[in-house]
Amino acid sequence: MNTTSAEQVAAYLLRVKAVKLDPEHPFTWASGLKSPIYCDNRKTLSHPEARSYIRDQFARLIREKYPDAELVAGVATGAIAPGVLVAQELGLPFAYVRLMPKEHGLENQIEGECRAGQRVVVLEDLISTGKSSLQAVKTLRDAGCEVMGMVAIFTYSLMLATNNFSRARCALDTLSDYGTLIDLAARTGYVHPDEVVRLKQWRMNPDTYR
Predict the structure, then answer these.
(1) Which of 3, 177, 178, 190 could cross-link to 185 by cystine, CB 3.0-4.6 Å?
(2) C-alpha to C-alpha distance for 73 and 152, rounded to whole angstroms
(3) Do residues 58 and 123 touch, judged by C-beta distance below 8 A?
(4) In angstroms, rounded to a whole number, what is the distance separating the alpha carbons of residues 154 and 96?
(5) 143 contacts: CB under 8 Å, gap ≥ 6
(6) What is the pTM of this model?
(7) In Å, how far are 32, 92, 198, 204 from 194, measured between CA atoms?
(8) Which pLDDT tens digit goes with each residue over 145-180?
(9) Structural domains in the chain (count)
(10) What is the CATH number of the domain that holds 198?
């Protein structure tokens, strides 16, 4: 991860209010975890400067790490829009992966064209535990694709996610991360210094946070 660009992405997330930090009133994730932070990266789509910067950083990362990629696959629904922007910038085909197959029509789980043996980079907007993101990886692998790795805008940097990606043997690269964002939020006065300790403690023991 490029430190300078990671800080810039974090700065955009804070500036467009994609991130909400509230240690006193934790948010509940779909997984049931309580969290003092909630990140909604879809908000960046409404801000051309942030949207363009994230697109360009994704394109740079994929060119550097996956120059042989043949397809960009976004994870529905949060990564569909940024995935299209990145695929367009790279001149690559795009597809997206649903968590579950449609219950009508063709009952597709992968929308768009992909073929067995195709080298794919999976694009995600946010990594929390990694469970739903890795389901998309499994779906593509089951379709015969060669998943080269996953790239994402932001990760909460939870050990659970690290372990899940390791078990799935899937490389993960993100444009920014929890530590970078919290440090920047502290330096710029986005959060009170007393809150920083709790925010850092949560990442180490998210199961016990209340």
Answers:
(1) 190
(2) 12
(3) yes
(4) 19
(5) 110, 114, 116
(6) 0.93
(7) 26, 46, 7, 17
(8) 999 999 999 999 999 999 999 999 999 999 999 999
(9) 1
(10) 3.40.50.2020
